[in-house]
Design goal:
- By secondary structure, this protein is of the alpha/beta class.
- The protein has a single domain, classed as Lumazine/riboflavin synthase (Rossmann fold, 3-Layer(aba) Sandwich), CATH 3.40.50.960.
- Helices cover 47% and strands 22% of the residues.
- It is built from five helices and six strands.
- Strands 2-1-3-4 form a four-stranded parallel sheet, with helices on both faces.
- α1 crosses α5.
- The model has no long low-confidence stretch (mean pLDDT 96).
Length: 157
C-alpha cells in the first residue's frame, strides 16, 4: 500500500495573509468574513492573520506576489469578486487575475488559494458569499490550510 499524504485542516501555529479587493465590497466583505471564520475555527489566532486591501482584482496578483515574497506567511488567500457586465472588461479581468495568481502561486512556492468569484449576476455572487451556495471565502481559506499542511508533508523526510 502506498503512503498517502493529505493536508489537514489544523491552522494552529500558521500565519495567513488575506489579499482582499475593495471593489464589489458588498460581496467581498462577506467572503472575507467567511475566510476569517474558517481560519479562526480551525485554530488560527487573530494575531497570525493579516489583511492586505487592494482596489480591485487587477491588483490582487501584484499584492499577492509582494506578500508571498515577504516570507512572513505560511499561506495566502486571494479574495475578490468580478460580476459580468455588458463589455469585455469582465472577461479580460477574470482571465488576467486568474493567470496572475496562478503565476504567483507557482513561482513563489507559497500556498495560495483562489477566493475570487467570477459570476454572471449579482445574485450569483450573493449566493456564493454566504447564502445558497455557502461561502466561497470560507472554502478558499480551508483549501489554503489544507495546502499548507500537505506542502509540509512533502518537506518532511
Amino acid at each position: 500500500m502506498p503512503k498517502i499524504h493529505e493536508g489537514g485542516f489544523d491552522a494552529t501555529g500558521l500565519r495567513f495573509a488575506l489579499v482582499v479587493t475593495r471593489f464589489n465590497h458588498f460581496v467581498v466583505e462577506k467572503l472575507e468574513q467567511g475566510a476569517l471564520d474558517a481560519l479562526l475555527r480551525h485554530g488560527a489566532r487573530d494575531e497570525d492573520l493579516e489583511i492586505f486591501r487592494v482596489p480591485g482584482s487587477w491588483e490582487l496578483p501584484q499584492m499577492a506576489r509582494l506578500v508571498c515574497a515577504s516570507g512572513r506567511f505560511d499561506g495566502v488567500v486571494a479574495i475578490g469578486c468580478l460580476i459580468r457586465g455588458g463589455t469585455a472588461h469582465f472577461d479580460l479581468l477574470a482571465a488576467e487575475t486568474t493567470k496572475g495568481l496562478s503565476q504567483v502561486a507557482l513561482q513563489s512556492g507559497v500556498p495560495l488559494s483562489f477566493g475570487v468569484l467570477t459570476t454572471d449576476t449579482i445574485e450569483q455572487a450573493i449566493e456564493r458569499a454566504g447564502t445558497k451556495q455557502g461561502n466561497k471565502g470560507f472554502d478558499a481559506a480551508l483549501s489554503c490550510v489544507e495546502l499548507v499542511r500537505a506542502a509540509r508533508a512533502v518537506q518532511q523526510r
